[in-house]
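Training component of the fellowship. As part of building independent skills, the fellow (R.M.) carried out the full modelling exercise for a liganded target. The chosen ligand was heme C. The inputs are recorded below so that the supervisory panel can assess the work.
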Amino acid sequence: LRRFMVLGAIASIFSVGAVQAQAPSGPLPPEQIIVIRQAVMDLQQGVAGAMKAAVDAKSDVKPLVPGAKGLVSSAKVITSMFPGGTETGHDTKAKPEIWSDWAGFEKAQAAMLAATEKLVPLAEANDTAGFATQFAAVGRTCGGCHREYKMKD
Ligand code: HEC
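Fellow's submitted model of the complex:
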């Protein structure tokens, strides 16, 4: 009986441990925020590459609706991925101007958001020509921000 009680006690310790296991809470470490923003940027690049291929081939742009919506969503969160404390680390290419000229950085974000929001209805309408023109405008907003706020690779 003693043996069973000991085993039972051990089992309950483990099950308590299992119940208490949960996702970490609290702020993300700065390094992790940098990894996330670089991943988001890389995914944006992937979406933009697929869009360029469709534009070059003059093919249907309707399949690009989810990608266009994704760019709207990522545009909305760009500045939140650059909190104070993430100026350095993980080989970041973020320029110090992001924090010394925060208003300008927000303007660059707003430009991308406005341009991507116009892209969605064009994709939904499968308007290949209109999409091509607006896609070029989106690309200029990526480059516009990078010129001011991202170091050269
Ligand atoms: C408001 C500013 C801003 C906009 C808009 C923006 N980017 Fe960036 N991007 C940055 C900054 C700053 C970095 C450097 C991030 C770092 O290394 O911490 C970056 C990095 C990148 C990288 C390199 C990621 C890596 O793995 O190091 C790619 C690729 C990229 N951006 C693509 C894009 C594309 C495509 C768009 C437009 C659809 C875009 N970006 C729009 C600011 C911006």
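The panel noted the following from the submitted structure. The radius of gyration is 23 Å. Residues 34, 37-38, 41-42, 44-45, 48, 71, 78, 92-94, 105, 108-109, 112, 138, 141-142, 145-146, 149-150 surround heme C (CB under 6 Å).
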